[in-house]
From TrEMBL:
CDD domains: TM_PBP2 (cd06261). The keyword Signal does not apply. The keyword RNA-binding does not apply. Belongs to the binding-protein-dependent transport system permease family. It comes from the Bacteria. Residues 1-29 are annotated as: Disordered. This is Sugar ABC transporter permease.
Length: 317
């Protein structure tokens, strides 16, 4: 009887292992939000860029075809008359010769910045201190620099006092002749902007893998050979950028000569001349045309530089 009432227990089959779950396809709303999110972050910078850069440029181009004096609410369309006047008056472009002084100064500051960046990229004493000393002038306001060096170069000023302590007597007016004035102002630009190029070069040098320096030292390479075969090729893109910034900056120098001399003694630059046309002679239309011409010149010079020295991928390994 027990045999008839006892039920045979059936073995329970093991549960099948659960396979990987397929992710549910993203909904249309999710895909739309993912595409929209980057643009939401770009709204503020794009609005600022359009408001304070492209809108003023568009207004400047529009004003360049008028005879607006900057005050009157009435604008008279004059076509290309302002551009014709610019191209037929050679004295308006003679001020570009002053940019040659700043172009030479740019070459000096690039060489100096590259030298200091190379030296301070190695393990030297007081490296952080010298980095701060070199970069500090770039942090000072340009107007303050202009006033400081105005007293530095004046007759009997700081420079004459220092030369007197060294036994050098001079009654030279440093800002009295076109050559000495432009040379002095270009020297001020070297002092101010060397720190910017120094930081760019130092960052590029430090991005080079340290294993390359170690391998070069094992092979007996000197500092010069390390610079020639490792550092120089590695910083080529940054060096090209520094040249572009230096040339465009040389063509558009403004604050230092404007503060120190006001464009007198043959130190007037194209930008100072443009500002005088707009605010001293009330020829805003002509000044706008000059600004457009300067913009085109800078873009053309930049394009030529990029064609001569194109960006190339640097592979040192």
């Amino acid at each position: 009887m027990a045999d008839t009432t006892r039920k045979a227990a059936r073995p329970v089959p093991p549960a099948a292992p659960a396979g990987p779950k397929r992710a549910a396809p993203a909904s249309r709303r999710t895909r739309f939000s993912r595409r929209l999110t980057p643009w939401l972050f770009l709204i503020a910078p794009l609005a600022l860029l359009l408001t304070f850069t492209y809108a003023p440029i568009a207004n400047m181009v529009a004003y360049s075809f008028t005879d607006w004096d900057g005050v009157s609410p009435e604008l008279t369309y004059t076509g290309t008359e302002n551009y014709t006047e610019l191209l037929t008056r050679s004295e308006l472009f003679e001020v570009f010769f002053v940019s040659g002084y700043y172009l030479a100064a740019s070459a000096v500051q690039i060489v100096a910045a590259l030298y200091f960046a190379t030296i301070l990229s190695f393990n030297v004493r007081f490296r952080s201190f010298f980095k701060g000393v070199l970069f500090f002038p770039y942090l000072i306001n340009g107007v303050a620099i202009g006033f400081v060096f105005l007293y530095f170069f004046q007759d009997g000023g700081t420079l004459d006092s220092v030369l007197g302590l060294l036994g050098v007597e001079t009654d030279h007016a440093w800002l009295g002749t076109p050559f000495s004035a432009n040379t002095s102002l270009a020297g001020v630009s070297v002092w101010r902007y060397t720190g910017l190029n120094f930081v760019l070069f130092l960052g590029a040098i430090q991005s080079i893998p340290g294993e390359l320096y170690e391998a070069a030292e094992i092979d007996g390479a000197s500092r010069w050979h390390q610079f020639r075969h490792i550092i120089a090729p590695g910083i080529k893109p940054v060096l090209s950028l520094s040249v572009i910034l230096s040339v465009s900056g040389s063509l558009s120098v403004f604050e230092i000569p404007y503060i120190m001399t006001g464009g007198a003694t043959g130190t007037e630059t194209f930008v100072i001349q443009t500002v005088k046309l707009a605010f001293q002679f009330n020829k805003t239309g002509l000044a706008s045309a000059a600004a457009v011409v300067l913009l085109l010149i800078v873009l053309a010079v930049t394009w030529v530089q990029r064609r001569i020295v194109p960006d190339e991928k640097v592979d040192l390994v």
